[in-house]
Amino acid sequence: MRRDVFQAIADPVRRDIIDVLSREILTVNEIAEKFAISRPAISKHVKILNECGLITIDQKGRERHCNINPSGLVPAFLWMEQYKDLWEERLDSFEEYLMQLQSKSNKDGEHGPK
Asked: What is the edge-to-edge ordering of all strands in the sheet holding 63-68?
């Protein structure tokens, strides 16, 4: 089964593993120590991340060292980038709405009953 980057980043544990590996190279066991889930579950997540090209695994003796492959995130980044302007516009509109509410609330407080 061929997986893609979107399947990989859909799971919060895999996103956390990506975050951890973005700071340091770790073995699968070292990754597992950072999470409150089983070693086999971490191995499964690592396997998916590897299949999606988000990490590489270097076998050194009995240990498997996991390295982040940031270029594997490019497809997701490019997909999200196309919506950047839309979301910025919506967030700006929401911010303006909140400022109007705050302004109205302040005016009501100034002229309200005492």
From this structure: 26-27, 63-68, 55-60
